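Model the whole thing, not chain by chain.
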Amino acid sequence: MSMEIIGTYAVAILLLIGSGFVAVGVIGLLKFNDSMTRLHAPTKVGTVGIGALLLASIGHSFLLGDSSMHELLIMGFLFVTAPISANFIAKVNIHLGACETPPPPPRDKTWSTLDVAVEDTQS
Amino acid sequence: MTRAYQWLLPHPFLTLLLAVVWTLLQNDVSAGMVVFGIILGIIIPRMTSIWWPDTPKGFRLGKMMSYSLIVMWDILVANIQVAWIVISVPNAKLKPAWIVVPLDLVQPEAITMLAGTITLTPGTVSADLSSGGHSLLVHVLHTDEPDAVLDEIKTRYERRLKEIFQ
C-alpha cells in the first residue's frame, strides 16, 4: 500500500470522526431541555469535531504536496475564543434566571454577574 | 542593559507568540517573513504596553507545554464521555450541578487559563467569577458526586497552574 492510499484513508477517517462529533453536538443542542445543559454539548463536542476536520484538511493539503498550516491557527484561535462565548452565554442564563440560582460563593459577597447596582435593576 | 531589554521586550512571550502567528499566517517559512514577524512582535507589545501593566513575573514555558499536553488529552477523553452522555442519558436522569471552586490562584492570567481549561474540558463550563475574584462558579453537565469533580479541578489543573505562574 502506498503512502497516498494510507493518507487518503487517514483523511477519510478523520473526516468521519469530526462530523460524528459535530453531529453529537447538534443532537445535544436539540435534546437537552434546559439552557445551561444545552450549552455543554455544542461548545465542547464541537472543539474536537472541528479539530478533527481541520486535521483532515492539513492531511489533505500534505497529500496534494501543498502544505498548509493555517489550520493550526484556526485551531488555536478556536480554543482561545470558545470558552469566552460559553462564559457569556452562561452569564446571560444566570442573569435571566433561566437556570437554578447558583450557591453563594464562600469568601465574597456574591457572583459578579449578580452583583448589580440597585439603580440598574429599577430602570 | 536589563532596562534596555525591558524597554524593548516588555512581554517576551507575547513577542514570540506574535512572531509565530505571523509566520503561520504566511503559510510559508522564509527568512524575510520570520524577521518581519519578529519586528511586529517587538513593535506591537511596545505600542500596547500601557494596557498590560503587570507582567506575570515567573512563567515556566516547559511546565506550560506539559500542561497543554495534559489538557489536550483530557479534552479528547472527556469529549468521548460527553458524547456518550449526550447519546445515552435521558433528560430525566441527567444530574447537572453547580460547583463552587475556591481559588488559590491570584494572577488574572492564571485564573483566565483555569477558567478556559475548565470550559474546554467537556462536561464542565466555568460560568462566573465571584465579585472579589476568590472563587469560580462551574456548571457540570452530569455528575453523581460533585466533590470528586471539584477535587479533580483543584489537583489536576489548579496545582499545575500554580507551578506555571509563580
